[in-house]
Amino acid sequence: MDYFNIICIDDEREVLDAVVQDLSIFNPFFNIEECESAEECLQLLEELAAEESPVALIISDHVMPGKSGIELLIDIQKNNNFVGTKKILLTGLATQKDTINAINNAKLDNYLEKVWDKQKLVQMVKELLTEYIIERGFDYTDYNDILDPATLYRLLQ
Amino acid sequence: MYRKQLKYILPFLIPAFILSLPLNAFGIDHFTFVEQRVMAIFVLATLCWILEPIPIYATSVLIIMLELLTISTKGLWFTKIASPDLGKLIDYHEIIGVFASPIIMLFLGGFFLALAATKYKLDINLARILLKPFGKEPKFVMLGLMIITAIFSMFMSNTATTAMMLSILTPVLALFSTKDLGKTAFSLAVPIAANVGGIATPIGTPPNAVALKYLVDENNISFGQWMMFGVPFVVILLFISWMLLCHLFPSTAKEIKLNIDSKFLKTPKAITVYVVFVVTILLWLMGGNHGMNAYVVALIPVTVFSMFKIITKEDLKKISWDVLWLVSGGIALGIALDKSGLAQHTIASIPFATLHPLLLISGAALLCLVMANFMSNTASANLLLPIVAALGASMHSLLPYGGEVVLILAVTFAASLGMSLPISTPPNALAFASGNIKTKQMAKVGIIVGLVGVLLSFAMLYILNEFSIII
């Protein structure tokens, strides 16, 4: 079975912990990484790329000291090592201009507002992971428990 | 921890052990080096397909490569050193040619039809129209779904058909109350119908293709002939499965309304797809009346759809090459067992002739059923059919019961009837992902349908033989 990474980025420790806690059901199948800044995330990505360890999903905050979340996601969008990696922006503080930038240049897959609903987040992550696994041609049968059936059926027709 | 490594060690250790034995250790007269190598390859294939240390289609490619390296006329130099015990090397053309054998081309034709049908929404539109007469009562909607799923899986891959049907069902089942057993019934109905439906045509499911390899010369069965017994078999087994599902998991919902929102496309390309689809199937059903066999006909959709860009370069990438390779590996294994003489020699050295033929037929079918439950249906057919075919050809006591054809068909049908676990078939895995089915429920229905199916296939083969239809 292939082991994928999910990376969560937020400069506030409590928020980061809350996101990771909400995603704990994915733990047996995915390696959940935590980063407190965009720079830390980029460094981690470099290491993962060197190990050829696939990154399925990145959930990033926007407003952070140093590089912003949207700038980080744009970097990842342009990086050929992470083709197909799903991106969620999790923020309450993005302006309209930021949002437009994120959609146009970071090719955002989803936008989630703080404060988020756990159910919604989990469902969103399930759908995106299902898409990632099918689109990248991995064997979906290993991940049956955490896939979103509707997405699975749509993509396998 | 130790167990985990065994699956990587065993498939290489045991074949290596076989290769290291001296020839006279096997107790088979005139045993040759080539036969010894084929035996090692066969054991390796069996272990790899059961334990899956590598993907199952990779095992197929490995078989073909090992055959080329060790038993072909163009193999490694030390495998060809002349010796009275060497045996007969196989022409490399024949081994490498399995990638494009007529059977593979037949399947490719089927894949093209299925891809085009999905792309131009022919499947979903047909589903919409065919479902209408079944009304709204859950019981009958389920029957309709099963019939349509079965019809589609006769020509399309069982997996794609299941995915399509489940995607129609998912939003509707979400509205059912959580305790309603109807959810389970519906979610199980689709994979069962897809698994069973594949039996009806030679291109319905890969095990059938593997069987075609052994149904040659006087045992040849045409596309239309296959359907003549395949379709009635599927109809009866579907009906039994439907009654079983209605009995075990009655739905409390009063009505169910499937919303299929689509319209027939009327663009020139779509019309080409409709025409080619109908023409190809008609040509297949007509048998040899027009001079072409099913393999030649299969290239018509491939050509036409490529010419008119109905299947584009991008679409070509969606062809299930893994399935084609899996079948190729099975054919290569069959060639090696047959041409090296291993199959005949081994069978001659085991006193099968003393066995009652009926015991043999039922034993082989049940073994295949058990294997197909735990591993890929195609891999089960790949392993059993070459042996069964050689056995059938050598056993004269089988003749009153229909000869090798009956034995081959019984095993082929059994290969498609393994469906009691989520891992048994891809349709089962998909249905299980819906979350509406418990493993126990799937096992219960799967075992019953599997056993009933095998018994039904015996009855059908008996009738076919008794009245000298086809066989």
Describe the structure.
The complex is a heterodimer of chains A (157) and B (471). By secondary structure, chain A is α/β, with parallel strands linked by helices. Chain A has one domain (4-116): Rossmann fold, CATH 3.40.50.2300. Helix content of chain A is 45%, strand content 18%. Chain A has 6 helices and 5 strands, in the order βαβαβαβαβαα. Chain A has helices spanning 13-22, 38-50, 69-78, 96-106, 118-135, 149-156, and strands spanning 4-9, 30-35, 55-60, 86-91, 110-113. In chain A, strands 2-1-3-4-5 form a 5-stranded parallel β-sheet, sandwiched between helices. Chain A starts with a strand and ends with a helix. The model of chain A has no long low-confidence stretch (mean pLDDT 89). Chain B has 2 domains: 1-95 and 332-348, no CATH class; 102-321, no CATH class. Chain B is 68% helix and 0% strand. Chain B has helices at residues 2-20, 33-51, 56-71, 92-96, 102-119, 122-131, 138-155, 158-173, 182-197, 206-214, 223-248, 268-285, 294-307, 313-316, 321-339, 342-349, 357-374, 377-394, 403-416, 426-433, 439-466. The model of chain B has no long low-confidence stretch (mean pLDDT 91).
